Amino acid sequence: MRASAAVTVGVGATAAVAVAALVQGAGDTPAGAALSMSVPAEYRNLIEEAGNTCPEVTPNLLAALLTQESGFNPEAKSHVGAQGIAQFMPSTWETHGIDGNGDGKRDVLNPEDAIPSSAKYLCSIAKDVKDVPGDKQSNMLAAYNAGPYAVRKAGGVPPIKETQNYVKSITTLANKNPGGGRGGNPASSDRATVAVNAAKKMLGKPYSWGGGNANGPSKGTCCSPRGRSGASITGFDCSGLTLYAYAQAGISLPRTAGQQYAASEPVKPGNVRPGDLVFYGSGPSSIHHVGIYVGNGWMIDAPRPGIQVRYSPMDTMTDLFAVARPVSHNKEI
Distance between CA atoms of 308 and 208, rounded to whole angstroms? Predict the structure, then answer.
């Protein structure tokens, strides 16, 4: 047991105070520990910051997009007139370009302007296609390449080979499992990145009591404390979601939230980072809920029957107990 070392800030304190105590000074935005791709040093901070502009954009996804668009060449120009590290067309830049470095100019060839503009534009597109069926990030990337109208018309990624390859290439690069590491250690930021990305792909999946395993959504069991059955619902409960997310990173977690806490290393206040697990309850023996932290006081969780997997603030419940980092017991993956 690790109760003596736990960050038990949720007991006898409001959830808001608990959240503040946990994340203060942590550098804990999704960018803070989530960028695992190889990125030129001069652009790393820009991508980490811009990669937290909205939930649909991550530092890895933004880095993968810039790799695809220009290979991180700030002076790149295409045969159709796209310019800069993010390959903005002049008309798009005129509408969506921002003065990212505050020097009073919007320069498409300056990465300090172009990188945050790219993230902002992605987020704007994500809103334009938010109601289109399918994977939200894939639709966003397709819209970045082919335009929102093409995605809305097709009801998802359009049947355009260039666009389909574009989406596949960026998604594969952004979600590539860096691998490595030996068992018995808290999850590295690389593995945490994989886990967070896996959880994001499950946004919108149904809640199912007892549902979810290492392979993804599954039918659950009966019954929740209030008598709700998941036997006919394919989806996740809270710990099924976190179990699945970390399985994609090569870390095997136990099934229940309480067991997952016992299998994790408590995180000290100020050291919370994306991928850490957020636990709720009055103590280690009464933990009843878990989510996966994504930064800025937010997590992804499967809240309760009738509510889909979603982003939730850490103070969504009043009994925040601790944040802990999963421990790998695999010898090697």
Answer: 9
SS3 327: strand
Global pTM?
0.52
Position of tokens 């120009």?
77
The architecture (CATH level 2) of 37-174 comes to Orthogonal Bundle (1.10)
Q: What is the pLDDT of residues 274-326, one digit of tens each?
A: 999 999 999 888 999 999 998 878 899 999 999 999 888 898 899 999 999 99
Strand partners, 289: 280
How do residues 165-207 score in pLDDT, each as one tens digit? 889 888 887 876 443 333 456 666 778 999 999 999 998 899 9
| φ/ψ of residue 46, rounded to 5 | -60, -45
Q: What is the separation of C-alpha 164 from the centre of its chain, rounded to a whole number of angstroms?
A: 22
**CATH, range 3-29+182-328:** 3.90.1720.10
Nearest alpha-carbon partner for 228 in 243, 211, 246, 253 = 211
Is 16:315 a contact under the CB 8 Å cutoff? yes
- Domain borders along the chain are 3-29+182-328, 37-174
